[in-house]
């Protein structure tokens, strides 16, 4: 097995990993890049740069897909007065009485008052939102 080369050594041995590491390095230096006519370290540099470029493009695509997917999920209010540019409600102090709970989860059927919908929202999302409670001073 004088000059069997890397592939010949792998074919002649029962275990290809038995090829000495030094011979792997010398054999890889003799490899030729397909369709390029180049051999030696220049070829490997091009392969490494191509691999790095491929990983970079993959990372950029992953970043853009993730950014696009997360940009649209930031809306909190999906129910109350969606046609208005801003939701602002005015409640007279006389209407509050002794104590009133106001919704902060945007899920209440009795908007702007709390109906306890935040409990279901908290269970589904792991959030901890609750109402703001306004009461008269004692």
From TrEMBL:
Its cofactor is [2Fe-2S] cluster. It comes from the Eukaryota. Keywords: 2Fe-2S, Endoplasmic reticulum, Iron, Iron-sulfur, Membrane, Metal-binding, Transmembrane, Transmembrane helix. GO terms for molecular function: 2 iron, 2 sulfur cluster binding; L-cysteine transaminase activity; metal ion binding. It is found in: Endoplasmic reticulum membrane. The keyword Iron-sulfur applies. It is a single-pass membrane protein. One of its GO terms (biological process) is regulation of autophagy. The chain crosses the membrane at residues 47-66. InterPro entries: CISD1/2, FeS-contain_CDGSH-typ, MitoNEET_CISD. Signal peptide: none annotated. SMART domains: ZnF_CDGSH. Binds 1 [2Fe-2S] cluster. GO terms for cellular component: endoplasmic reticulum membrane; mitochondrial outer membrane. Its main location: endoplasmic reticulum. The keyword Metal-binding applies. Pfam families: zf-CDGSH. Belongs to the CISD protein family. CISD2 subfamily. This is CDGSH iron-sulfur domain-containing protein 2 homologue. It comes from Pristionchus pacificus. The gene is WBGene00111894.
